[in-house]
Protein 1
Amino acid sequence: MVKPPKIVVIGAGSAIFGLGALARIIQCERLRGAHLAMVDIDREALDTMHSVAEKMNQAWDARMTITSTTERTEALPGADFVIVSIQVGPRETMWEMDWRIPLRHGVRQPYAENGGPGAFAHTARNLPVILGIARDMERLCPDAWYLNLTNPLIRLTWAVHHYTRIKVMGLCHQLLWGYAMAMAILADRYDVPVPPHFHVHTDADNMPNFIPVAEAGLKYLDIKAAGINHFSWVYEIRDRQTGEDLYPLLRERWLGGYRRNFEPLTREIFDIFGMMPTAGDSHMCEYLSYTHDPITRPWEKYDLKLQSWDGNRRRRAERRALAAAIARGERSVDELRDLSKFAILNEPVPEIISAITFNDNYYSQQLNIPNNGLIPNLPADSIVEVPGVLSGMGIQGLAFPPLPEGIAELCRRELVRSKIVVEAAVQGDRNLALQALLLDPMITDIDVARAILDDFLTEFADYLPQFNREADYLAQPKVS
């Protein structure tokens, strides 16, 4: 009989990530009796979430062993799966600085998380911790799976793959945005209500409108998409029950007169390149060179909204208050059985863990894994996003036909740039960092790139130790 797994959750004290992840893992019947080891550097937040987890464990008869610690090396020995969702520095504050620092020098990024110069800083801050966890895993649980949920997902997942021997996959729920957009276009066919002026901007306050439409999309539609994270493309869309090909209808409706203000950049790219992008305007815009021009002001033309940092802060405070109330017994833990009530998205983490542990042959629609020919005209040793099957054999990604060359070139540029960003951040190499910024589609001047880099390295100095001392401990090559 297969022993239930040991699951380490690093970042478990987060009210944004932790509530949903813990609720889904502890509710999973297949994971009954597992060891759940919770790790976070915030002792107070960790204690609250540990209390909530124990209440779930008891109320839902999960029979798990639950432990918590602020030291990951105490939790890692014997781990089968290590789930990582962390951010270095105060999340919203850092993100806003990633946007405002380039703006001082005339570079207005449309989003500043996964692309643009802000994403360089975002990568460089998180990378030492992300790789440090993998290095500890090599010593303490070398056969465990590293499940990375930290952005920039392509870059950080590739760093673990390239610089360590650890098995890694990146997990993201962005395909839901593709389902929501498609369902909005096809809603009358399935009698699905869509709110007036519906959009899929990635905004905490928009989640109550977004989630029901996305869930209806999952119920009625089947999308097969591939590409790279936050920049994947619909190869096929069918009616989930009948198998009917819906791509012609979707294309006819969206490009033929559906609301012109509905994800207009996505519609434009769909029309020009011939395939529907899945990420929605908010994330897709990060990888394009035509979203920041100060003369044409594309953020106005396409209504490209920034992340709502204040909205995220409110959401974080609300989730912390909810967790604290459950821990004190003032609210029932059973409220967390329905995560949509709190606008929390379902992550397929327990299904993935169960499938690999118990050979469940689970089909996942969105995995970020090494390419190895899955998309033949993208670099072989890069992280691509494809569906796949998870079982006792591990992960088998589904192979796709080549992307159209125009789309493939957009993806290749990001993948090559991502590798240079990672190498610069691993080595602490300022010249390589400057090269990485000069390859960014939002940078058009050498002196501007230098000025942005200088400000990043000065203002984030406390979070960028690799640029202040030798970083050879990170850059060790993979040992076979």
Protein 2
Amino acid sequence: MRTTVEAYSLRNAAALVQESSTKRGNLSVQSGKISAGKAAGPEIDLGGSSFLYPALINIHDHFRGNYVPQVGPNGNAFYINWSPWDNDLKASPVYKERANITVEQMYFLSSYKNLFSGVATANDHFPHEINEPFLPRLPIRVIGEYTLAHECSSFDLKWGDGIEIEHKRAVERNWPFITHLEEGFDPESQDGIGILERLGCLDGHDVFIHCIGFSDEDIAKTAKAGASISWCPASNMLMFNVTCKIRKFLEAGVNVCLGTDSTHTGSANLLSEMKFARKVFRDMYGTELPAKTLYRMVTANPAKAFRMQDRTGSLDTGKSADLLVLKAIHDDPYEALAKAEPSDIRLLTLEGVPLLVEEALAEPFRELLAKGYETVKVGGRKVHVRGTPASLYRDVRKAIGFDKKLDYLPFEP
């Protein structure tokens, strides 16, 4: 992927937001990477009123499941594990309605769910044979460098070639091994860490999703192994009325990342999930989850979990120019991100190429934007978006027979 503008500079940012520090200044892009020197190309003046971040990373999503409304338990009941939820989903009217949309359309809808919330990199937690036909054509980066299991229990969906084979493959290729783990409270679900220990598959390649059944001992073992976790509080609270012991994970030094899960149980997008995460943390502990901690959960931490920290997740020289420019809606740039809405995104790039750019910053990219982009209005602003989100939205509405509102698409086609 290359832009016709091989080099450009973003000037006069109110803050460049690094993993642990911020500074006012400028950033240059050269051939898709962050450059140490001043770029020879055009300058884009941010006017001192915007913050510049690494583009966000969504560690956990299911691209075939991003449809609404949510599906959850009836009344005041909650699930004991994921399996009865799956039965409820497949028996629901929304599942029947979703069947009118092609798998390809679901994948593109999901990529725009992420794009419109500042995400340039995501994982689609499905087997490769399901998503490989679509991933290279999506507007964002959806990683293919992973191995997986659905879950470590006898009632999982048998994704991949088995835990031991998939984990060994991850180690050999230096990829993450990604699996739901202890998503429930039955005895087998709560033995997830024990199962991996007995198989010799508990180590730093592991990325565990949900982890709501983890004991204190499980958390300690996860920290010792150097494994990462994906916290998905919105999905957890809908399905189980409880989430993982998130403060204990943080205190143990576990690499904690934030994921959305699909919109059938999770938030509309990653920006919404960040707000929900802070609310849940406040409700659980009576104190605030620091915005800087939350920032790391959607940038450097998932880059580390995906074993991509040499390529993305920060604004370091030489890394991919995966960039997010937000309006400075708060004096503190970390708080600005935690409070951001899709309407606050001014620019999102992948390898220096705009995925979304507002009209006020679009001039250096005119030649590129003339083909392969559509223009929509988000929060009353004209933005240019890579691909065809408006056409897709219209096609989806035509397929299901009415003007369906998908809340993760923040525009009318």
Protein 3
Amino acid sequence: MTINVAVLLAAVVAWRLRRRTEARSRFDERLTVVIVLALGVLIAPTPAGQGILNILGQLASGVTQASR
């Protein structure tokens, strides 16, 4: 059985984000940001990451056109 690192990081992010905001220190917040960035780097080259990028690009384009 192999463990996909992206799935493991996604589980860690979900677990960390469930905690109450008031209980977090600055170090804890920075660690969460680093983990999320690492997850993004792992997901970006995959087909799912490309789909997310495409959806976000279309959303940004729609918002830009709506503001004109």
Protein 4
Amino acid sequence: MNIGIFTYGTRGDLQPYVALALGLKAKGHEVTISATEDFKEFVEGFNISFQPLFGNAEGMMNSAEGQSILKSENPIKLMKYYFKVLHDSREPLRKSYFTAISKVDFIIANAMTLPIVSTIAEKQNKKMAITYFMPPVVPTKEFPLGDFDFFNFSWYNKLTYKIAQGFFWKFVKKDTNEYRKELGLAELKENLISHIDKQKVLDLYCISPSLISQPKDWESHHKISGFLTVPLQVRKEHSLDKTPDELSVWLDNGSKPIYIGFGSNGVGNTEKFISIIKEVLEKTNERILFCTGWSLFDNLPAHNNLFISKYVNHETILPKCKVGIFHGGAGTLATMLRNNLPVIIVSFYTDQPTWGKIVERKKLGIHIPAKKITADKLIAAIELSQTEEIKDNVRTIGQLIRNERGLENAVAEIQDYFSNSLNIPPPRCHLTPKMTSWG
């Protein structure tokens, strides 16, 4: 099969697809990843074909307007800005998608690409699967959407998902129908998610069933597979993931450090976080490994207990740390728990607060919203993360995640789904049957 994977966003939105592409390639399929132009070197470093989409994700985050929005720490403003950028660049963006999709036979897409990808897939009559690395947005009676978890009873729970889908449709309706008209397709009267769902498109949540169980009232095309992970040996061989000698020396010459990193999640109020880091260094003897990622941190302090890097190889470095402090992206969460690392989630927007709440419910760490974080709160959270209860819980969950075979499950489900349109006997699916509770 000739399969195209389409994603638009941060490195956290991309990296699980690297694992999926490698898994599909190992089964003999031809796979191309399409993402913004700035990810070309990263993707091709894994010997995966890359087809660029218009735009630069890091540049969008660090533009003057992007920085202004990030400093507000307002998730609604950030979402509006994201959709505004997509709207303003819609013509070259659509052309780049159309070119990429025209070169493949099957499509795997993430949620943010759906307004364009689903339109082209329908026009070109190509089968599409959707994959997510976030808590489910499929309606269920069993639990509410994370942002609306004020109550928990069946009709309210289902309503919360309808509300979220309505918000999404409000943001993308005009551009979606404009493009459908341009390609000669009928205008959608219902929301896009409902339209796609009626086609029984494979809807695969690549998250751990040990953290969120698969609802019993889902239809069969909605599934939870387990996290997708790039194999450690493959990561070690990537030119961008090699550990610098100076970092290895620093790690070996002292106690286990605290990892702090927000990756490609933009931090606007950098002054606040610099002040917090300084205060933690002054008030404790903790060592800090700080990864700046995409954020523009200036005037970070020089200190023997502070090592600063743009990125590190999480698979290699996190096992050498005592606790992970991060924004709550699912991929980083998976890596930390898989390596038995307690977590402190400093959430900013989208699904991050939900992961923070799950972590606290399961006593795997602590959740602090970014707006409320202070040095004293962070120091208290670090101390709490080192209790035996949290460490034991993390070890238990870590073992479950290591046993889930998430990549194997996802590859089998996708092969099965796409093979049905080719009359090819499907491979056996290995989805883990036992699901644990939500919270």
